[in-house]
Specification:
255 residues, two-stranded antiparallel sheet, 11 helices, globular
Length: 255
């Protein structure tokens, strides 16, 4: 993502650092929609293992429901804290998430699975996201983004579901950009609000708390979705290592 990050910078400060220029990200999200125009959805899947398909569908349904939200609270915080340009950028990000939800719903249908109307893990994330302000909501959102990105990548590389490779590789590319978008914002704001030696100590403590929260969420996910991981021929250890790699990169750049 280094080249991508160099192309889309949000670090241009306006009004003595209070506001940031998000026009690069705005342009990115506006243009990114076009890449789905030529994406071909498979009409059927070759895998006839009903148990495997059911396990994959169940895990995808957990992510699908999390990608369907309108993000009203997040958008209200974005407008309040950063202004209309950031709000528009956040709105386009959320629309991209909703687009993923639509594609995931279609995949779940191909797997003969069912969509969820609700799940306790989704409610859990929502409660924590809204506990404090914008930064807290984004930190919780990053946890879900990392867990989802790594699982989508497992599907993209699964030998049992080659027909889904292009779709999930496209979603993974989007999720990488989403991580970059939020990491850049949080990194700039953390350095701004917690500068100096004392700020560094505070950031270290916050990183430890965030890491603990992430590890708890990851353990719960694995315990609840071991069959979904197995359906993609991914070991729990490989999933954990890939998640921790993304966590370390995000933490190093934010804190």
């Amino acid at each position: 993502m280094a080249g991508f990050a160099n192309q889309i910078l949000v670090g241009k400060q306006v009004d003595e650092g209070r506001k940031l220029d998000y026009t690069g990200w705005l342009d990115y999200f506006r243009s990114n929609k076009s890449k789905y125009a030529n994406l071909v959805m498979p009409q059927a899947l070759m895998c006839r293992d009903k148990a495997r398909n059911a396990a994959l569908a169940a895990t995808l349904a957990r992510f699908q429901i999390g990608e369907t939200g309108e993000g009203k609270h997040l958008k209200s915080q974005a407008l309040k804290v950063e202004g209309p340009v950031y709000l528009e950028t956040m709105d386009l990000f959320l629309r991209e998430e909703n687009n993923h939800a639509d594609y995931l719903a279609r995949v779940i249908g191909l797997l003969d699975g069912r969509l969820l109307k609700g799940h306790w893990t989704d409610a859990f994330f929502i409660v924590f996201r809204r506990a404090l302000g914008l930064k807290t909501e984004l930190f919780v959102l990053l946890v879900a983004e990392i867990l989802g990105q790594v699982f989508y990548d497992c599907v993209a590389h699964s030998p049992e579901y080659e027909e889904l490779s292009e779709l999930f590789a496209t979603i993974v590319a989007d999720e990488k950009a989403h991580l970059e978008f939020h990491i850049q914002y949080l990194g700039l704001r953390m350095q701004e609000t917690l500068p100096g030696t004392l700020g560094k100590v505070s950031r270290t403590i916050l990183y430890a708390v965030w890491t603990a929260f992430f590890l708890a969420a990851m353990i719960v996910f694995i315990a609840d979705n071991r069959r979904g991981l197995k359906a993609t021929d991914t070991s729990c250890i490989d999933y954990v290592l890939n998640c921790l790699c993304l966590l370390e990169n995000a933490g190093r750049r934010i804190f």
